[in-house]
Amino acid sequence: MKKVLLVALAVVAVGFIYAFMPKNDVADNAAKHTAAGEVAWMTWDEAIKANEKAPKKILIDFYTDWCGWCKKMDASTFKDPGVVSYINANFYPVKFNAEQKEDVVFQGTTFSYTAGGRGGFHKLAYELLDGRLGYPSYVYLTPTYERILISPGYKDAPMLTKELKFVSEDTYMTTSWEQYKNSN
User: Fold this and answer.
1) Which residue of 65, 73, 111, 133 has the smallest Cβ count within 10 Å?
2) Which of 144, 145, 142 is nearest to 173 (CA)?
3) Quick count: other Cβ atoms within 10 Å of Cβ 173?
């Protein structure tokens, strides 16, 4: 009788442990957004934390509030079901306002807003875009934060899908983007 009671108690204990274990919030969030037809956009800090737990390539969408083409991407390309599901499955997608005023600390460096020009710029955007501050622009990073590709400008769903596959399938390791883009 004691053995049965111990086994039952062990089963109940395992059930409680499982019930209160933290869920994979990143995967749950991506699945929820994919089902809703949305890209599971993250902040920079959220993507870095998620990448520390489960490494994955990062897609950064640099935008500004005044950018008309950025709004068109949000309203069309980033609503395309194929694009949404591909991004959510293969990347940590970051939506980054290139004119945001909040500091970002990354790898021991603080990146800040700099006033000037049309509305100023954030130094992280400046660094990742090699100073080419045109919007929208996209940067792809490896899980170790090495830049794969800087991609400026509006893209329709087929062109963005081609670019996403080029990066996620590691084609960039053997072929330049220009060769790939022109060959397929």
Assistant:
1) 65
2) 142
3) 7
Please give the tally of structural domains in the chain. Answer: 1
Sign of CA dihedral 114, 117, 122, 128: negative
Note the Cα 141 to chain centre separation in Å.
Answer: 9
Q: Is 20 exposed, middle or buried (0-12, 13-18, 19+ CB in 10 A)?
A: exposed
- pLDDT tens digits, one per residue of 76-121: 999 999 999 999 999 999 999 999 999 999 888 999 999 876 678 9
State the CATH number of the domain containing residue 178: 3.40.30.10
> What's the CA gap between 62 and 7, in Å, rounded?
55
User: Does residue 22 lie within any of the structural domains?
Assistant: no
Biggest alpha carbon distance in the chain?
Answer: 79
Q: Tell how strand 137-141 and strand 147-152 pair up.
A: antiparallel
5 domain-assigned: no
SS3 149: strand
